[in-house]
Amino acid sequence: MELKQYAFKPFNKDTAFETWIKSEGIPILREFVVRDVRTVEVGPWARTGGKGAWLMLNTAADQTATTPYVCEIPPGRSLEPEKHMYEEMIFILDGVGATEVWVDEKKKRTFEWGPGSLFAAPLNTWHRLTNGSGQKPARFLALTNAPAVFNLYHNTKFVFENPFVFDDRYEDEESEYFSGKGEQKPGRVWDSNFIADVSRVALHDWKERGPSARNVEIELAHNTIAGHISEGRPCVYRKAHRHGPGAFIYILEGTGYSLMWPEGKPMKRYDWGVGSLFTPPNRWFHQHFTTSKDPVKRLAMKAWGQKYPIGGWELLDKPTDDGGDMIEYENEDPLVRRMYEEELKKSGVTLQMPPVNYKKRA
Ligand SMILES: [Fe+2]
Predict the structure, then answer these.
(1) Which of 88, 120, 213, 359 could cysteine-pair with 221, CB 3.0–4.6 Å?
(2) Whole-angstrom Cα distance, residue 346 to residue 338?
């Protein structure tokens, strides 16, 4: 379809990104925790040819880096082809289908996907998603860094009709690009362009975060935005940490809750289960707890990775006592552990962590 240049007005109280998503005419969810993105109501989306909803969680200040959306492809249909100057990472929630990617129309590459697939069309390449089922809709969750791009350039022609080719990220000749191949890198990183099923990616120990913490960091398509898959075993919990905005957590398996709080303010508790999505607000501490008897698996889609870092990474595993952003167990509010112990009692199990000698709190 033909894209109309959107006329951004100066001195608007909304950001350019927010102005633009309002113009799209699809639902905009503004919840703190989306209980289940698999059942979020989606509306007809003329630009994409599918149905969708933007997920504008928390406040605009928490959405300066990245914003997700949900999209449904009707049975037997394809979305409109598109290319854009923002990065996008796609996670398949439900359904099967295929994606075509190209720079030159005569050299299209196609790969197939199913539930649990994670991939990214390289920056500003043409791509088109097709539902492989004639009966059921296919639904995906996408993370974009569109807010950063819209707010900087506030020009839809620049974003959607830009002829620049990022040949440092992708060339039509790269026949293996979406084959699922990848490389293991230091820092628990899996560097690839296509993951058939996120639940099958090998996890690695992450001792700094606490007993039995395991995860894998995901880099896709030479993007700045990245992801990770984390496991949260029951009866143990990780240390709290904080960072800037732009990390969205999707629950793949299990149930539990998160504590989140801005420094010096009371903790708030948010319960979640499979399909839930939330984003810790800018610089809020957050800490996740598993209440199901099987481990929780989380997929994080976030504004930053390790391949093309944007800063702040070095503070994540550094204790707050040393100027970092991670709270050691002995610095934690004792309420954190007490609450989890109470929670575990309900299922007849007990905490499997050594006792803590709490430091005197200032
Ligand atoms: Fe985090």
Answers:
(1) 120
(2) 13
35 part of a folded domain: yes
Domain end, chosen from 134, 160, 186, is at: 160
d(CA 270, CA 291): 13
Expressed in angstroms and rounded, the spacing between residue 242 Cα and the centre of ligand 1 is 6
Dist. CA 134 → ligand 1 center (Å):
39
**DSSP code per residue over 117-144:** -EE-PPTT-EEEEEE--SSS-EEEEEEE
The CATH number covering residue 117 comes to: 2.60.120.10
- Ligand 1 centroid–CA 137 distance in Å is 32
Query: Quick one: 128 and 214 in the same domain?
Result: no
Q: Which domain holds residue 322?
A: 203-346
Distance 246 CA to ligand 1 centre (A): 10
Shared-domain flag, residues 221 and 313: yes
Clarify whether residues 135 and 219 are in a common domain: no
Distance in Å, CA 280 to ligand 1 centroid:
7
208 class by beta-carbon count within 10 Å (0-12 exposed, 13-18 middle, 19+ buried):
middle
- 161 CA distance to ligand 1 centroid (A)? 34
Task: Specify if 107 maps to a domain.
Answer: yes
How would you write the pLDDT of the chain (362 residues) with one tens digit per residue?
A: 556 678 899 999 999 999 999 999 999 999 899 999 999 999 999 999 999 999 999 776 777 899 999 999 999 999 999 999 999 999 999 999 999 999 999 999 999 999 999 999 999 999 999 999 999 999 999 999 999 999 999 999 999 999 999 999 999 888 899 999 999 999 899 999 999 999 999 999 988 777 778 999 999 999 999 999 999 999 999 999 999 999 999 999 999 999 999 999 999 999 999 999 999 999 999 999 999 999 999 999 999 999 999 877 788 889 999 999 999 999 999 999 999 999 999 999 999 999 999 997 65
CA 241 – ligand 1 centroid, Å: 6
Ligand 1 midpoint to CA 285 (Å) = 8
Q: How far is the CA of 243 from the centre of ligand 1 (A)?
A: 6
